[in-house]
Fold:
Amino acid sequence: MEGKVTSSSQNRICRISFFHPKSNSLPSSLLNELAETITNAGNDENVNVIVLQSEGEKAFCAGASFDELSSITDFENGKNFFMGFAKVINAMRKSPKFIIARVQGKVVGGGVGLAAASDYAFAAENASAKLSELALGIGPFVVGPAVERKIGKSAFSEMSIDFEWKTSHWCEQKGLFNKVFSSIDEMDQAVNELADSLSNGSPDAMKELKKVLWEGTEDWDTLLEKRAEISGKLVLSNFTKNYIKNFKENKQ
Structure:
């Protein structure tokens, strides 16, 4: 099973959900589909607000697909894979609709980028997060601008360098999550309440406010492509290949 992306709209709220059997990790096919689905929802005049969520309770998103990472053999394929995350982040940035992230579980790597690129993030208490890219020999280059914008350079540096799990409350304190709840049910109630409120708001006012909130990111199309090129080169290293091989063997 390669996973799926689904969307449904009701009462001017579009809920976009993704799933992959390996902790909601994201291969290229799902990244491209997710970016396209977010763009389409943003262009839908019958949608006022988007809720981004994933299935299950244990992990919101485990980041990049290790199966696909281990199969990359040349720079072009490496760049194209990381461009998938760039496309999703840019789709979220450019969407004229506010995007609420529903983070019900752990967040790793590219998943942290998705939470950071949302306009408002609700999280459950067990939604710890980490940027593990440096351990792989890659570095959080593509998601870096989104994460740094949300939590600042100091906190981004901490996440990038020590690549340890950060609690949901640490993430809330730093601004990655706006609110943390003791249960998924409480979180869902808050997600629904905000989505309902925004669904009745002025689309034009929200569109203009989103432009203001994302000022200074106009160069991200070029910036994230350059970052994808860095990761696309590093993923070919023996260090990264050996790390992924050992990781997968230990998981068996």
